[in-house]
Amino acid sequence: MTTQAVRLFRRMDGLFAVYKPQGVHWKLVRDTIETNLLKELNSCPPPAPQLAVQFQLLSSGENNSSKDLILSPSLLPTLADHPLVTGPQFNKVHVGVGHRLDAFSSGVLVLGVGKGNGVLEQLCKSHVTRTLFVLYLKDYMLEGEFGKATDNFSHTSRVIEKTTYDHVTQDKLERVLAMIQGANQKALITYSQVDLSTQEAYELAARGLLYPHGKSPPILTGLRCKHFNPPHFTLGLELRTSAVCSGARRTRDGPFKVEHALTRQHWTADSIIQAIAHFRKTTRKIRKSGMYRQTAGQLNSSAKIQEQITSQTGQSEQIGQEHVQLTSPTSDIIVERVTPGTLGEREVK
């Protein structure tokens, strides 16, 4: 019999996004949401206890002094289903995390519950296809400060250098950004592995559908200055001066935007279920895509190959032990592990 807690858990199956505050580790966000969901599931009323038929010896009741006993059937609740015996209905709710953010950064963090964990795993380990490339772009808002440099480019770290920035103007900054964007666009064409002399390459470039094929470094598909007020600016790079990053915020992770992310006060079961229902169509689209099926098949085949290699290695070791006199004591068995070439994680835009 399906209980109310099980029905509630089935409604939590999917993907949703939360807004990770700055200065909070992503593990703390995940643990907080897991705790809230677990409390909500265990607060559901337990199922009604099952009744068992028991026969008890009772007096016949003919008179008060009668000593005759008879067997009388009665229905009594079984203690095997009592909450004090079985414990809580759920002991663990696994919440998967997509592309992570460090403690210094803030913004959209995609999470998954139930089958959504499998979707997140495939998205993190696979490269998107051309038709889904635009869907899984990521947007970041960077804030910086000119005039000083630190050992790890963070404004909270130790200052190792101070420079002037009076010569930096917004026009110069935008020219540098255009150069960097052009270099990344060239890298995008290079890693797309498309023949530039073909009509297909021209049409893909015109429609903005070029995407990296295989493993590639992070590529910026768009770069611009949103706000310029020296020494503070929204995005800063090399302009014969130094700069530090004072803030990093992810405003988009694929189809999940900042307006869809749940803030801390909405990390409840009801709000999460509503967010999962809102993106249920998107989750189904991801699971039905060729990318998801192809990567899942590659992972399964890779696991089978590794199992075969492990079994073969075990057999080789047994044979080597049986024929120890015929083999060299310094010989080793070298096993090559086959991994899919499309696996890997990258960040775009």
From TrEMBL:
Classification via SUPFAM superfamilies: Pseudouridine synthase
Family indicated by similarity: Belongs to the pseudouridine synthase TruB family.
Gene3D superfamilies reported for this sequence: Pseudouridine synthase
Annotated GO MF terms: pseudouridine synthase activity; RNA binding
Protein known as: Putative tRNA pseudouridine synthase 2
Domain Pseudouridine synthase II N-terminal residue range list: 91-237
Biological processes per GO annotation: pseudouridine synthesis; RNA processing
Domain of life where this protein originates: Eukaryota
